[in-house]
Write a structure and sequence with these properties.
260 residues; alpha/beta; cell shape
Amino acid sequence: MRDIMTSPHSPRGPAASEAPLPRHVAIIMDGNNRWAKARGLSGIRGHHAGVESVRAVIRRAAERGIETLTLFAFSSENWKRPPSEVNALMELFLMALQREVKKLHRHGIRLSVIGERNGFSASIQRHIASAEALTRDNTGLHLVIAANYGGRWDIACAARLLAERVAAGELEPEAIDEQALDDEVSLSGDAPVDLCIRTSGEQRISNFLLWQMAYAELHFTPVLWPDFDGEAFDRALADYQGRQRRFGMTDEQLEAQQGE
């Protein structure tokens, strides 16, 4: 099996524009089933093919100096899929934790998993904890896997934690503001999402990182996830670099800010 950081292509993509790259990229990996169906294969074959795209994108994100890469692997709604597919996805998730984590660690990548872990088997939960402990002190790319995750769930959990602090007398209700909630949601220590990529032509965010993507640029591509590679990732970054991020400001304000 090829090392997760070994690419058969050039180690870097096209020459980077002078425009800044996103610090945090989030990806909704969509299209595995359609990719498989078009080839007369089972859905799980599509998921297995998608693993290679995961490796390619991790390699390229690390090469381009992205700080955080968050991949939407399994949503809280995905439990509604056929049991055979869910079971196969769980086996694939466990296999990835068993086979890939040491490679990530060898290349200084820190791994985190966000989502409701109690829905997973005891074995998967143990491997998640072990992977996070092994890579905790790494200072390279922060790779985040969102598994059994939902944006509404995330915000509700944060609200509950704040409510518990109020009930315990540790926090005044008047002290609850955007920053207080931001401190409690997943990935509070990382930069907000700058760029969200969704593959397969769908144009929605599907309950993914709702709080963290408040000002994210959205990049939708018709490419199915198993066909999404380092070059496709570079194109998404170039699209981001070609945009003007206003954050509510006028052109004149942006020009003045950039001239400082």
